[in-house]
Write a structure and sequence with these properties.
By secondary structure, this protein is an alpha+beta fold. Helices cover 16% and strands 32% of the residues.
Length: 97
């Protein structure tokens, strides 16, 4: 019997969701962290890159409270639309998403 797990993270428009599954597909745990975009005008949504990263950490931490993430064989990450965040030499974001 395989004791590994698969972990997925989805960075969405209003929250980051994370979940861990057995290799057979059984849900082991899930987590969620909400946030709100900055909307300078009605048709524009901007996101703080640090907030998105912290949200992923919080969602994964919630999963980790219910299952051993050290067993993860796979980590899949998905994000809303395609986008890029510029970072400086220290790895700190210098642009919005």
């Amino acid at each position: 019997m395989n004791t590994g797990c698969l972990v997925g993270v989805d960075v969405g428009g209003s929250s980051t969701k994370a979940a861990a599954f057995t290799v057979e597909g059984k849900l082991l745990a899930r987590g969620r962290s909400d946030y709100r975009p900055f909307q300078p005008s009605p048709d524009v949504a901007e996101y703080d890159a640090r907030e998105l990263c912290q949200s992923a950490v919080r969602a994964l931490a919630e999963v980790g409270r219910h299952t051993d993430l050290g067993r993860a064989e796979v980590l899949a990450v998905d994000a809303m639309v395609s986008g890029v965040v510029a970072i400086d030499m220290r790895g700190d974001p210098v642009s919005i998403f």
